[in-house]
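Field reference: sequence -> structure
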Amino acid sequence: MGVVKSDVAYEVIGAAIDVHRELGPGLFEHVYHQCLEYELHKRGVAVATQVPLPLMYDGHRLGCVYRADLVVADQLLVELKSLDRVLPVHEAQVLTYLRLSAFKQALLINFNVRLLKEGIKSFVRKEHT
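Structure field:
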């Protein structure tokens, strides 16, 4: 797992662990999505789902091209998976979402693992100097 930069990230990870403990691996992504959203609401954490990420190309804003699975507390992007194995393309997806958005941190959570800590990866936007 990468660096956790915020209390919000810790809250999401804790909620995801609780969901995984209850359900275990092997379900579809949308099941974990709904349960994690519920768990965060239950904890009083603001969460938005399927958040549009518009794309700027050559100075033109294109419509909704991508959607973030979750945006938590208006500061953390969360991408959910339920895969046998996270591939580099999935990590590239999260990095692209970070680049297209104003968020400084994202979590990639794969629920299809024996222990959830094995399925969590944190990404932090590199600031240009």
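Note: The mean pLDDT is 92.
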